[in-house]
Q: What sequence folds into this?
């Protein structure tokens, strides 16, 4: 009965070894029409959409971009960035 529910090695999707030595299944190509993008690509796409929205608002006159006055710059100095943490 167990053999009926389990897939044989011949029909199972191929696997590969990760750096940690664990086995993972390879993604099956063509199964889904949805393409999974890495996080970096999704973040870049979201950033581009926000920039396009800002450009559109500027074009319509709903938003204006200007230089800070010396008084504003003094009241709002640039923030110091924390150094980037290294990889583990």
A:
């Amino acid at each position: 009965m167990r053999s009926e529910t389990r897939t044989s090695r011949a029909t199972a999707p191929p696997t590969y070894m990760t750096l940690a030595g664990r086995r993972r299944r390879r993604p099956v190509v063509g199964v889904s029409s949805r393409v999974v993008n890495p996080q970096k690509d999704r973040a870049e796409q979201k950033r581009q959409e926000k920039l396009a929205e800002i450009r559109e608002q500027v074009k319509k006159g709903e938003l204006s971009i200007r230089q800070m006055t010396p008084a504003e710059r003094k009241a709002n100095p640039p923030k110091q960035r924390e150094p980037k943490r290294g990889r583990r």
